Amino acid sequence: MADEALFLLLHGEMVAGLYRAAEQGEGENGRCTTKLESMGFRVGQGLIERFTKDTARFKDELDIMKFICKDFWTTVFKKQIDNLRTNHQGIYVLQDNKFRLLTQMSAGKQYLEHAPKYLAFTCGLIRGGLSNLGIKSIVTAEVSSMPACK
Amino acid sequence: MSQSPGRKQENHKISRELFVLTYGALVAQLCKDYEKDEDVNACLDRMGYSIGIRLIDDFLARSAVKKCRSYSETADMIAQVAFKMYLGVTPSVSCSSAAGNEFSLILDKNPLVDFVEELPVERASLCYCNLLCGVIRGALEMVHLAAEVSFLQDRLKGDAVTEIGITFLRKPEDRKHRRN
């Protein structure tokens, strides 16, 4: 789908643009990640609203997480989450072995230190989606080897 | 396919909405970062340019179009194939100069502003879709066509339609000379 290329490029540009501006300005990297995450938050809120307009009510938290892993992820990234783990006490780990925003970057350990920048937006996306479904959450991401991420 | 065709349409719509919402969040963030509208416009144009120089590869790979032989063919290609492929709309093309190097694309439906009602008062001269201008400019440059692209009319600013003007900077005679 052509839209995907456009979104990937826009996302890449956003990350690059924000970091470039930060380098010229104050030079604070943490702020950029926060900005990206809050942008993702806004987008996630809007997107989940439009997406769940016609779906049935969710039974519980696990149901919501499964929805995020299957339908939401499929619509946004054209594939499902590969692995969902939970400790049934509020912590969920979503693992994607071929994260779409990272596949174009590398297939191993190269550029690993730059990977978190590209995940900030998606973390915000999930947090925004969950927040509009009534769940307060903290979303973090971890990349050990591209393009897989948790 | 376990999903019904209706669902596929919806997914297609949602991915477009993802792009539109992301773009909106980006513009909002830029407005927070920069006070002057010109700075935001310039930033959007620069980003669009970087996207355009990469998007052209994707476009040529997907569409496999033949080389355009004239500026008007190029403008038609942009309107009928590229816009349709990436944004799902087909602007109409009109040539607005006798020399044949100025064209305008008229969009009566701009998907990027689907969720925007109006520009805030303090941002009256913001070109919300300036990214599009940068994208077109960057893409054309990668196929060796220098052009100036700008918004001539903008629905968000009260005009009837959204019009993008493309001015090709090299005259057709130069191209003929190069071939010889």
UniProtKB/TrEMBL annotation, chain A:
Keywords, sorted A to Z: Endoplasmic reticulum, Golgi apparatus, Neurogenesis
Source organism, top-level taxon: Eukaryota
CDD domains reported in the protein's UniProt record: TRAPPC6A_Trs33
GO cellular component: cis-Golgi network; endoplasmic reticulum; trans-Golgi network; TRAPP complex
Listed Gene3D superfamilies: Trafficking protein particle complex subunit 3
Compartment(s): Endoplasmic reticulum; Golgi apparatus, cis-Golgi network
Statement: the UniProt record of this protein carries the keyword Endoplasmic reticulum: yes
InterPro entries referenced in this protein's UniProt entry, alphabetically: NO_sig/Golgi_transp_ligand-bd (IPR024096), TRAPP_component (IPR007194), TRAPPC6/Trs33 (IPR037992)
UniProt record, GO biological process: endoplasmic reticulum to Golgi vesicle-mediated transport; nervous system development
Protein family per UniProt: Belongs to the TRAPP small subunits family. BET3 subfamily.
PANTHER family in alphabetical order: TRAFFICKING PROTEIN PARTICLE COMPLEX SUBUNIT 6B
Primary role: Component of a transport protein particle (TRAPP) complex that may function in specific stages of inter-organelle traffic. Specifically involved in the early development of neural circuitry, likely by controlling the frequency and amplitude of intracellular calcium transients implicated in the regulation of neuron differentiation and survival.
Protein name (database record): Trafficking protein particle complex subunit 6B
Annotated gene: Trappc6b
Automatic annotation (TrEMBL), chain B:
Gene3D superfamilies membership: Trafficking protein particle complex subunit 3
Source superkingdom: Eukaryota
GO biological-process terms attached to the record: Golgi vesicle transport
Location in the cell: Endoplasmic reticulum; Golgi apparatus, cis-Golgi network
Statement: the UniProt record of this protein carries the keyword Endoplasmic reticulum: yes
Entry function: May play a role in vesicular transport from endoplasmic reticulum to Golgi.
Family as reported in the entry's similarity comment: Belongs to the TRAPP small subunits family. BET3 subfamily.
Protein's UniProt name: Trafficking protein particle complex subunit 3-like protein
Lineage of the organism: Eukaryota, Metazoa, Chordata, Craniata, Vertebrata
